[in-house]
Write a structure and sequence with these properties.
Length: 252
C-alpha cells in the first residue's frame, strides 16, 4: 500500500502568517477609507447670527424734536411815529426798545423802518441788570444851548361834527416835550387836559372827542357829543397857560 505524505508543520505557519498580514492590511485600508469618509461628511458649522443686534439696527433712531423759535413781534414805522409812542403802544420801555434794535438816539426813526418789539417775559429781560454803585462824584449836566425847542401845533380836525369820527391832529416839529398839564379848549368852556407823556420830535398825536382807552398816539377826551363845529377856535396851551397854537375850523 502506498503511504500518504503529510505537509510539514512549518508550511502551515507560513500560511498563517500570510493570512495575518493580509488581514492587517485589509483592516488598515478599511480604517483609512472610513476616516476619509468622516472628513467628507463633517458638517461645517453655520455662523451664529446676532438676531437682537440685527433687529435693533433695523429700528429707526428717534431724533429729538426741536421746538421752533418764537417769531419776534415787529412794527413798521409810519409817518409821525415816535419811539416813545411805539413803546407805549406795546407796553415796553423806550430803553428796551432801543436795546432790542441797537438804537442810540430815541429821536431818530425812519418811515418804513422795521422795529423788533422785545418780549419782556423772555430770559433776556427777566433778570434786572445789576447797577454798579461807586462813590465817584458825577459831573453836573450843563443844558445844551443848541437843543431844539418843542414846537407843538394843531394841524387840523378830522370828522368834525361826528362823535365817533372827530379828532384833533397835533404835530411836534421841534424838540421833545412833556405834555402833562397841557390843554386844548374850544373857547366855550370845554377843555381837555393832556396826561403825563413825552411828545417826541417829529411825533404826531390824535385827540379824539369820544371816550376810549389812551394809546401812544391816540388820546380820548371822554365826551358823549361832538365838540368841533364850523367856526370854532381851538386853542392849545402849555402847562403854564401860554398859548402854543390855535386853529379855527372853517365855516360860520
Amino acid at each position: 500500500m502506498g503511504s500518504t505524505r503529510r505537509a510539514p508543520w512549518n508550511q502551515y505557519l507560513i500560511y498563517l502568517a500570510l493570512n495575518v498580514v493580509i488581514s492587517v492590511i485589509t483592516v488598515l485600508l478599511v480604517l483609512n477609507v472610513w476616516d476619509r469618509r468622516k472628513e467628507t461628511l463633517q458638517i461645517t458649522p453655520t455662523a451664529t447670527v446676532d438676531v437682537i443686534a440685527h433687529v435693533a439696527s433695523a429700528i429707526p433712531t428717534v431724533s429729538p424734536t426741536i421746538p421752533p423759535s418764537p417769531t419776534p413781534v415787529t412794527y413798521k414805522v409810519r409817518l409821525g411815529d415816535t419811539l416813545f409812542a411805539i413803546a407805549l403802544q406795546f407796553d415796553v420801555t423806550v430803553e428796551a426798545l432801543m436795546a432790542a434794535n441797537g438804537l442810540t438816539d430815541p429821536n431818530t426813526l425812519d418811515t418804513g423802518q422795521v422795529l423788533i418789539i422785545p418780549d419782556l417775559d423772555s430770559p433776556a429781560f427777566s433778570q434786572p441788570t445789576p447797577i454798579l454803585v461807586t462813590n465817584t462824584p458825577r459831573p453836573s449836566v450843563t443844558p445844551n444851548p443848541d437843543a431844539q425847542a418843542p414846537r407843538v401845533v394843531i394841524t387840523g380836525v378830522e370828522g368834525a361834527g361826528v362823535l365817533e369820527e372827530e379828532y384833533v391832529r397835533l404835530l411836534n416839529s421841534g424838540g421833545e416835550v412833556s405834555m402833562a398839564g397841557w390843554t386844548i379848549d374850544d373857547g366855550r368852556g370845554r377843555e381837555y387836559t393832556f396826561p403825563a407823556f413825552t411828545f417826541y420830535s417829529t411825533g404826531a398825536v390824535h385827540v379824539h372827542t369820544q371816550a376810549g382807552e389812551d394809546t401812544t398816539i391816540h388820546l380820548f377826551w371822554g365826551l358823549d357829543e361832538p365838540v368841533w363845529t364850523p367856526g370854532k377856535m381851538i386853542t392849545l396851551r402849555d402847562a403854564s397857560g401860554v398859548v402854543q397854537s390855535t386853529f379855527q375850523l372853517p365855516g360860520n
